[in-house]
Amino acid sequence: MEAFVTARPASGLLLAAARSGSGKTTVTLALLRALRRRGLAVAGAKCGPDYIDPAFHAAATGRPSYNLDSFAMDGALLDAVAGRAGDEADLLLAEGSMGLFDGVVAEEGRSGANADIAARYGWPVVLVLDVSGAAQSAAATALGVRAYDPRLTLAGVILNKVASPRHRRLVEVGLTRIGIPVLGAVPREAALVLPERHLGLIQAGETADLESRLDRLADLAEASIDLDAVVAAAGGRVPARESGHSSIGHLPPPPGQRLAVARDAAFSFVYPHLETGWRAAGAEIVPFSPLADEAPPSDCDACWLPGGYPELHAGRIAAASRFLDGVRAFAETRAVHGECGGYMVLGESLEDEEGTTHRMAGLLPVATSYARRRLHLGYRIATLVGAGSLGAAGQGLVGHEFHYASEITPPPGPDEALAEVTDAEGRPLGLAGHRRGRVSGSFFHLVGLR
């Protein structure tokens, strides 16, 4: 696989918060776009399993953004991906997920928490502090963050959802008392909040007027954040890449050398490091659109249906006869794998939110329902029951599951299951996914090898 070469060492910064909903993504995008507009070579990254935010980072910076995950990636893969994320950048700005210390019960440095990434690379933390409903008391939250983990350096805070100049002054009184710098104060501005749906933000490619939204966020950052202070706060290191095959880290080989990958508004959730790794291994990725009723190209030797939002497009997919007939014909001679939404489409049927059942490809013995919603969320450790697109029988994989759809058919037996699965702490979750002939799929999103 090709080397991920960093032409010059970048410094790093982690933008985090004490909890979800604090405005990390809005502030991150504002900073990325504003710093790019100033001429800085700035790149984005996302801590933890997230399919949507990296696409927004890429739109804001014009550079690829990657996921960094201390639980699902071993050290070699994590370093390789971090090196790729900072390739030819001066500053790598990583956005946290959930709260700074939120992760699973695991050994230090492998919990999946944002804090692990900052500690591993020595990146200072800038805390996005949601001060709505608080004034001086907000300083107690910042103080707790600073004291909780001695591995970290808290460089300062950016106040978010500030109601008025007086509100800002009151908050700053508390922070001055404990000696934590305020790097900016972002006013409450509902018009700049990005639209959301059930798995998070509306995708970057679907967001109307994305460029103008990003520019307005950059204007907001220029007016309310000390950009020079933010850049000056960066530190630590972005790991340098060694050339050679092994430097990619712990990734499975591509499922094919000419790989048809579904890509449109219904199928878009592929971790960027996987596609980069596949290309580095010599694979060619050939995109096609099921929503445009395109079949997997016949000159490909494997097909990958990623996750996304098929439940929002079930009627169109059911009516896409060229796609459905094409994927059925493809599966007669070549491997087809579906992740999450792709798994749903490879099944017998998909029930949408209104309770209407739509026929799908019928390649796997599973029916799914978005009407019978239940949140399925968390890391998954999988051991393959049989050989297929993801590897040989017995291969260990690690990934993540995040969906609301439910399987309404019986669980698979050992002769048709894809994998035996546990949660992050090793608690057994039973058999999951399906395999039939050359076709396989599950709700599991692959991150790396275990």
How would you explain this protein's 3D organization?
Belongs to the CobB/CbiA family. The protein is an alpha/beta fold and 450 residues long. The protein has 2 domains: 11-233, Rossmann fold, CATH 3.40.50; 251-449, Class I glutamine amidotransferase (GATase) domain (Rossmann fold, 3-Layer(aba) Sandwich). Helix content is 27%, strand content 26%.
- Helix fraction? 25-40%
How widely separated are the two ends? Answer: 20 Å
Share of β-strand residues = 25-35%
State the name of the first-level CATH class of the largest domain.
Alpha Beta
Low-confidence stretches: 1-7, 197-201
CATH homology-level superfamily of the largest domain: P-loop containing nucleotide triphosphate hydrolases
Dominant shape = elongated
The main sheet comes to: 7 strands, parallel
Number of strands: 26
- Tell me which CATH architecture of the largest domain applies here: 3-Layer(aba) Sandwich
Which structural class is indicated by helix and strand composition? alpha/beta
Lateral strand order in the biggest sheet: 3-2-4-1-5-6-7
Output the number of helix runs: 12
- How big is the Rg? 22 Å
Number of individual domains: 2
Task: Classify the fold: give the CATH topology of the largest domain.
Answer: Rossmann fold
Mean pLDDT comes to: 92
